[in-house]
Design goal:
- The complex is a heterodimer.
- By secondary structure, chain A is of the alpha+beta class.
- Chain A has two helices and three strands.
- Chain B is an all-alpha fold.
- Chain B is built from 13 helices and two strands, in the order H-H-H-H-H-H-H-H-H-H-E-E-H-H-H.
- A two-stranded antiparallel ribbon of chain B has the order 1-2.
- The longest helix of chain B has 29 residues.
- The N terminus of chain B is likely disordered.
- Classes of the chains: A alpha+beta, B mainly alpha.
- Chains A and B meet through strand 2 and helix 1 of A and helix 4, helix 5, helix 7 and helix 13 of B.
Chain lengths: 94, 332
């Protein structure tokens, strides 16, 4: 492992119809090698039908310290949930 | 998610005021107590970070070094099926090392630093891998006992407080169970075989039993890190608890095999519903940890040669990638 092998984050789609999920990271010389290594490290038991690799330095993450402020807008909008609405029992298909 | 700025997280913490730190620690401990996960960019006590870096990197090193004693028998496996299975197991161990290095890197340590620590001999790895594999039966004993003990240790860690480590352990535990079955199946075939095969199986058990139960670490009274690790939910059960559980589960398996565990004091205690067992020779454990086990030097030498001999491949790959990148840029 030399300094020249950057870190890639790996995302795997396990089955057609599902989304790619983050499974971990690995070092590779380039994107092609990263995909091949991801195949060897993360899909030995047929856990994947598709692989995405992204340079870790390209990932932008929200800061947990800002989580309260960042997610505040949704906190008082409980009316976005269906359970907020009282519908009489006799009404069907609502 | 992980960004390259992770190594600066620790430095930010230095600037916080004492009262801020107390509040941050209280919030951190509250999350841990509530069984919430700590993720890479969350605030954490520096000691928590360092303990995890140490534990996860040592765990990763153990997987990589663990490939060596078993790799030793790939060329001499008795059948094609056993060879293919052993290759798959060793490949898994390499993969497990990768998951764990990846988890450790989320805490701000670089892969190269961990590599250097291992090759310089400053990082520890599990004592068990400093023993030689002398016969094919050793491969069976390792799968049955060593992977068995590892599973016992690893399942609770699936619920540890640090997200990336817990998730890596879930993945590892899924794969580990074939390892143990593979080993037991070998022992079963030998135990049901010729007198020579039975003797070989018994001999392997004689040599691997005590080192395997030492894998759980020192007795609780001797273990310095346990209390803090349990408060931080890195460790969920004590060394002695796990060791007892392992012995209770494994003794009946040995009986089924018709093999004899080399402990004259091993006996079922009806009152406690556990197996009593003999005194562990901790001087051997400490000698091996210090670097004086049968294979410590050999293992490190093997890792160093592999690293040195592979240097031209790593450099060539990096040079090739750079050339492709420059070429693409000129064409653009």
């Amino acid at each position: 492992m030399s300094n020249d092998w950057p870190l890639y984050e790996v995302f795997i789609r396990s089955r057609s119809g599902l989304e790619h999920k983050h499974v971990g990271s690995l070092h590779a010389a380039d994107a092609t090698m990263a995909v091949e290594h991801a195949r060897d490290v993360y899909t030995r038991r047929q856990e994947g039908v598709s692989i995405w690799v992204v340079r870790s330095s390209d990932i932008v993450a929200s800061d947990p310290n800002d989580a309260d402020a960042l997610f505040e807008p949704a906190r008082d909008k409980v009316y976005r949930h269906p359970t907020f609405y009282a519908i009489p029992d006799e009404v069907k298909n609502l | 998610m992980y960004t390259q700025g992770l190594d600066s997280l620790g430095k930010e913490c230095v600037h916080t005021v004492a009262s801020d730190t107390a509040a941050l620690e209280a919030r951190f401990q509250g999350k841990v107590d509530a069984d919430e996960k700590i993720e890479p960019k969350d605030w954490m006590p520096e000691a928590y970070r360092q303990t995890l870096i140490r534990q996860i990197s040592q765990h990763a090193h153990s997987e990589i070094v663990g490939m060596l004693p078993e790799g030793n028998w790939i060329a001499r496996a008795p059948t094609l099926r056993r060879k293919a299975v052993l290759i798959a197991k060793v490949q898994d161990e390499g993969g497990h090392g990768m998951y764990l290095y990846s988890a450790a890197e989320t805490l701000g340590i670089e892969r190269e630093q961990m590599q250097e620590q291992l090759l310089a001999g400053t990082a520890k790895y599990s004592s068990i891998f400093n023993y030689p594999t002398l016969t094919w039966a050793d491969i069976g004993a390792i799968g049955w006992l060593v992977d068995g003990a590892a599973i016992m240790n690893q399942i609770p860690i699936c619920r540890c407080s640090y997200g990336p480590y817990a998730r890596a352990m879930v993945r590892i535990c899924k794969e580990e169970s074939f390892h143990q079955r593979q080993g037991f199946e070998i022992m079963l075939a030998l135990a049901r075989g010729t007198p020579e095969q039975q003797a070989m199986a018994q001999d392997a058990l004689n040599r691997w039993w005590w080192p395997s139960i030492m894998m759980f670490g020192p007795s609780d009274t001797e273990s310095k890190h346990t209390a803090q690790s349990m408060r931080w939910k890195i460790k969920r059960f004590t060394n002695d608890e796990l060791r007892q559980k392992f012995i209770d589960i494994t003794a009946p398996q040995a009986k089924f095999l018709g093999l004899h565990i080399p402990d004259p004091q091993l006996a079922w205690d009806e009152a406690t519903q556990h197996f009593r067992f003999g005194q562990i020779d901790w001087s051997e454990f400490h000698a091996v940890l210090k670097g004086n086990g049968p294979c410590n030097r050999e293992r490190l030498e093997a890792r160093r040669s592999a690293h040195e001999n592979g240097r031209w491949v790593r450099e060539a790959a990096a040079a090739h990638a750079e050339k492709q990148r420059a070429r693409a840029q000129r064409a653009a």
